[in-house]
Amino acid sequence: MSSASDTIEEFTGQDYKYGFVTDIETEKIPMGLNEDIVRLISSKKSEPEWLLEWRLRAYRHWLTMTEPEWHNVHYPPIDYQKTYYYAAPKAKVVLDSLDEVDPELLKTFEKLGISLAEQKRLTGVAVDAVFDSVSVTTTFKEELYKLGIIFCSFSEAVQNHPDLVKKYLGSVVPYSDNYFATLNSAVFSDGSFCYIPPGVKCPMELSTYFRINAENTGQFERTLLVADKGATVSYLEGCTAPRRDENQLHAAVVELIAMEGATIKYSTVQNWYPGDKEGKGGIYNFVTKRGKCLDNAKISWTQVETGSAVTWKYPSCILQGDNSVGEFYSVAVTNNMQQADTGTKMIHIGKNTRSTIVSKGISAGKGQNTYRGLVRMNPGAEGARNYSQCDSLLIGDRCGAHTFPYIDIRNPSAQVEHEASTSKIGEDQIFYCKQRGISTEDAVNLIVNGFCKEVFRELPMEFAVEAQKLLSVSLEGSVG
Amino acid sequence: MALLEITDLHAGIAGREILHGISLTVNAGETHAIMGLNGSGKSTLANVLAGREAYEVTSGTVEFNGKDLLDLAPEERACEGVFLAFQYPVEIPGVNNTYFLRAALNAQRKYHGLDEISAIAFMALVKEKLKILHIDQGLLNRPVNEGFSGGEKKRNEIFQMAVLNPKLAILDETDSGLDIDAIRAVADGVNALRSPDRATIVVTHYQRLLNYIVPDFVHVLLNGRIITSGGKELALKLESEGYAWLEEEAAAVAGAKN
Fold this sequence. Notes:
The structure holds 2 protein chains of 2 kinds. Chain A contains 14 helices and 19 strands. By secondary structure, chain A is α/β, with parallel strands linked by helices.
């Protein structure tokens, strides 16, 4: 069989191949969490013994931990025994055409400007719909393969590249790291794996868009990305369409390793279901993202967080190597009853390490938006520098913005700058726009986009356009 | 038909009436000056015409180009051709001046059922207007009014007016806070945009702006009423004699009524 038809097989036969749908229907995996469930997940994925052991160590450690309470988000207690731990996000029904899709969802797609082919893929109209992009995907896969780049699902990597997985898994976020990361380590279902060999500059943005498997990753994704010496990669995560996900808890882990002189740019647009206006439903998004930089390496996180009922995430950089660079650019939006507690940690260990933090929080409705950041200069971080800027924008008078910057300096030669501002979209600004003919809604978008400009310009071009559209959908109806 | 026909307009803010019955007719091609002391209701009139939400019209009518202006939302009024040059132009951080103006122009074109202007045609239009107004191109790439000097802000208002090409331009205290060179520069811009199709209402406290933007009619507003109207010489008389004589006259009229 040609590789093109292999890929088609992958696209179309996905559910069958991994048995997600069949398994759920035939063998109901019991609710709740215990060692047997962990073993079951591992065996379903035909994992090697060492990985099962690692999962079990994580599970046993998790039992000794308590859920954190220091964050500025509030939600009813999660009953971990009433959650399914090995389930596709939804039992997928393959629809015949877009006519069968929830019209509300299609309306959102339209607003986002998502292409018809992509709409079909996202809503599960499989088979013929994806044919257009199949050849494209194949071309990309071949091109990447020639360069020695590995880009596949986490499960595939465990099967095909166990040495790489074993070497790096848990090397940045150990299984004992924190409550949610530990839970993820025990039960993670799938995710992405990426390896860029030494000196290779990945010729295209790597995106879950190209990988059909992304659709089937469950609540507990795990991403591992390794850029070997001198390699460069830009990775786009997330889907810009709202996912009608029935699961409440989403606890993902992302580990990045930038070896000497490597550069990783990791961009996220997160738009999980935020719940309705009264705060019913929505995703609790507890994510641990961390990267490690060796000498002269650079990791840049850019995130646009518009979804989820609760967002709890702190993409961080461990600047271990000398002259390494960490960056964090963030836009977080909370509308209606959404809550976000997000920020970053920049841990300066090596000499002359540099970090930049630009955080833009937007609160509307009754949304609560918290920036929480840590800048730490270790004793050995001679000549390290940090620049932080945290800006908050309020829309209306029932929302909140909170900022908790922690600064911990143990080296007298380190320099830290912190700037913060809070502003409100004024009636005056909106009236000014209206007097020029611009509608209220467009005026809000214009003002918000201006506010986020420094972050949006860090995003790859097409992502930036989508992020802007997403923002306007998220803030719809927040004024007037 | 007059372009703007204000009839017995009563309006105010926060439950307090400020305009006590204004009537005014403005035809295309005319320039009217509205003068008066602080608190006389000049800026209220400008804001009511533009549709600022905080102001409330209690009675009277305003017809603009055959339409009931008071029935239209602020952005609809703008699209119908009412332009307010703000006394205090608002800053919009991070939003490129050119981008803002193009969004405004396209919103107005859409209102009239026209296609969006192409980037090339827009830049050509913008450059043409900059040239007429002698404004530096550097203005284009800065965020809307952010970090602008007082003079730059007012000139930016006139520049926006040039691009949006309104039927009625209302200049609200455009001279306030400007030195004489800046006033001259702004006035030159306004004069360059004079057209038989456009009417201009210049709201000002001082006569000095009217040395440069010469009005066809001058109206004096006192305590929410137009107490006298005349030609440009009325402004000169106010300059030399102040407003006191008008206040006395108004008091006498009021006394006679009682």
